[in-house]
Amino acid sequence: MADIAWIPLIFVTLLVIATIGLGLYVQRSVRSTADMYVASRSVSVPMNSAAISGEYLSAASFMGVAGMVMKFGYDVLWYPALYAAGYLFLLLFIASPLRRFGAYTIPDFAEGRYASPSFRKIAVVFVLAIGLFYTMPQMKGAGVALVNILHTPYWVGVVLVGAVITFNVALGGMKGITFVQAFQYWVKMFAISVPIFILFAFIGGYPGQMAQFGNQGEAGKALPRFLDDHQITYRPVAPANEVVFPAAISGRFVNGAEVAVTVTPALPPGSDPITPEDLLPSGLPAETVVREVAGTERTLYIFAPGTEFVTSAPVQVTRNGEPVIVRDPSTREEKELLVTPKLLLFPYADQDRVVVHYARGEVVPNAPADKTWLEPFGPLTNKYGYPVLYTYSLILAIICGTAGLPHILVRFYTNPDGKTAKRTAFWVLILLGAFYFFPAIFGAMGRNAVPELYAVTGGAYSTDSVVLVLPKILNEQVVYLGDILSGITSAGAFAGFMTTFSGLLVSITGALAHDIYGNMLNKKATPQQRINAFRLAAVLAGAGAIVLGTFVENFDINMMVGWAFAIAAASYFPLLIISVWWRRASATGAAVGMLGGGLSALAAIVSTMLADKQVLPGLAVWYAQNPVFRTLAEQPAIWAVPLALTLIVVVSLLTPRAVPADVHHKMLVLHAPEELGLKHAFIKEEQPTKTTSR
Amino acid sequence: MRDIPAGTTEMSVHPAPGGPRYDVHSEQYLHLVMSAQLKLSLKCFAVFVIILLGVPLVNYYLPEIVNMRVWGFTLSWLFLGVLFYPLTWLIARIYVTRSLALEDEISARAAREEGRAHHG
Asked: Nearest chain B Cα to A78, which residue?
């Protein structure tokens, strides 16, 4: 296929070498289990805030947010804004008390706060589940990115990133990755901002880009158009092969195609039929075949290679000849219902993909119109007709999810004391806010400059790759400039996979080595045994993540991150906020609330997936008829978080005996400044190698 | 930041002159430490909640205002995509400054009480 992208390869190679080098350098000073788990609680505020930010900014933040802004517009701005603002919540309520408790892992906190060893077991399960759901997307991102750069098989990127990070974590633990994560925060900040400033110089600034989108009258109906002739490749995997044509668009099936012709949104029951001839006025081939597509029998039209086609403009829906009137959920205006043609593309004869040629000036398929893109309650939140509900649930999920991610929370234990934990959280908010300002600019610029990315909705050349593809347009202005900037953003994306995976691996390893081995299997382990257990667990967890990562090539990245956030929001967040601030919380109450909230959120999300993949077709039909429940199941935070909180409170009040006897002292430890000398850290450091800053 | 500040913050933990003396291990002391910090957190959080609850409502009920064009942006985009970040920084800055001052005061007060207990 295409040549190796040498310039991005050089940048990524340099980054990998620097990562391994830093890991080796730090490893020389790692001596104790405290180093491995919490970097001896001696990480300075500048270092730790950069490390936390570096760990948090995953590939989903680096590439996914920009791609989603380009795809859906305004509604997606909530993601970066709240990914950052989640730390305000953490700062106000959780960061400093959590640190003062002085544990190694979040299950430590659960056991220590409630004096309940069985609670640790429940907490460990959630650490592992969240870690797993969050790890897989990093693995997939690494594999896909390397496919783009080197055209290697998918598994090569998974093994490369997995091996490098497992090596670093096994050698240096938390201490080892702290330096690497801090360094890579700055790599990512550089990689997202510098290309944007250079792009500004050539194609105009942020306000100028935004001014190109209309929202008044006819200007709001504008759709992005191809700036050049393009051949778009569709692989026969849903949703990448589903193409929506929002206007009359002509194209050519270069290597032929088998096509199912349908409409979106689905026709309401009782409306007059709309035929494939209405949707493809250029004509349909005589040759057809019937195949099962996602559980239903469909007629596929067989277009020979080179056939031209033209889709219809959106078609009015009628019932008994009268136009169907619907109320627009976001503008609340009555309007005639229009549906747009949607084609499902499958390869022709012995081909393995469908290639469609679109001429310059044609409208790009799948793109939303300017007004819906630019204004609130667009295609993301309005897809089931309850945009405000969807927005609130999204807000709650991200804010509470951020405050409940165990691999992030555990980093606060590396601060010397509660005060530095507060300062660290404050600086994290600054560093993340500075970063998250930029991806939306990539999204807006991408809509203007590389609209062809809309033409496929999934895979390596969709809007998800805007951060890598957009800088290349500068190659026309200055030779190699675009490739160099694209190399820089590739390195930034790689830094995203590596830092997030390293944090997750420490978190998973901590759960295995400290919570399971050190506190359940072998409580009398010597310090050396504990270090060995940490290293062994890191290698096992890393190897496991690599193996599983090779199987998730066709999973949706954002979906799995969404699971992790929803489970964290409905399990750890309620646990932490109540444990820190409510003295009457009992072990039973906290455990029931955490399990109830976390499991019901998980069940709701899994049910939408089972419906979408047609595993439970009955459920899919029911969700289609009950869009409120569909919205609530897809974004469960709005009910799952209150459910978990209510369960904790009610069950705690019913089981006052399960409130720890020394709760008073525990609350003092959580809240009183360290100067008072009340602190008895939950973990007694076995062999401090050096004094902390205290 | 080890120095004990001389000034008091808005939410002072100093009791009224001649007020009760607290043992650092007492119920009252815990209540003092927790409620002062919690009040401060809740105040800052309230501002944040008003913004988060308010923005979707304003977007929904006042579209003609939030969709006005300002400097190329719509008002809603300008707020959430640009101004939101400095706003969170401001709230966080106010919180951190006051919260740390509060902690210093609590420690200073405890140290004084201890001194009195030892010498008096």
From this structure: B80
Residue A694: predicted pLDDT: 32
**Contact list, A399 vs chain B (CB under 8 Å):** 52
Whether A215 maps to a domain, the answer reads no
How far apart are alpha carbons A645 and A659 in whole angstroms? 16
Residue to mutate among A44, A87, A200, A210, with most B CBs inside 10 A, is A210
**Are A350 and A401 members of one domain?**
no
Which residue is listed with tokens 């469908």? A354
**CB–CB of A460/A81 below 8 Å?**
no
* B82: closest CA of chain A, how far (Å): 7
Read off the DSSP letter of residue A349.
T
B26 in a domain, yes or no? no
Query: Nearest to residue A628, comparing CAs of A379, A327, A390, A392?
Result: A390
- pLDDT at A678 (0 to 100): 61
A504 domain-assigned: yes
Lowest mean pLDDT among A127-131, B31-35, B83-87, B96-100: B31-35
Of the two residues B86 and A667, the one the predictor is more confident about is B86
Is A526 found in the same domain as A389?
yes
Contact A532, A559 (CB under 8 A): no
Q: Residue B5 pLDDT > 60, yes or no?
A: no
Give the pLDDT of residue A677. Answer: 64
What number of other Cβ atoms are within 10 A of residue A621's Cβ? 11
Q: Is the pLDDT of residue B120 over 50?
A: no
Range of the domain at A408: 6-202+381-553
Q: CB–CB of B72 and A84 under 8 A?
A: no
Where does a domain end: A553, A570, A589?
A553
Q: Is residue A684 part of a domain?
A: no
Instruction: Tell me the two tokens of residue B115.
Output: 């001194």
Using DSSP's 3-state secondary structure scheme, residue A546 falls into: helix
Give ipTM to 2 decimals: 0.87
In a domain, residue B9? The reply is no
Count of structural domains within chain A: 2
A178 and A292 part of one domain:
no
> Which chain A residue's Cα is nearest to B71?
A207
Distance CA B111, CA B113 (A): 5
Taking 50 as the pLDDT cut, the residues of chain A under it are: 1, 686-694
Residue B30 placed within a domain? no
What residues in A contact B82, CB-CB < 8 Å? 437
Tell me the mean pLDDT in the region B42-60: 91
Task: Say which of B56, B71, B74 has its CB closest to residue A391.
Answer: B56
Q: How many domains does chain B have?
A: 1
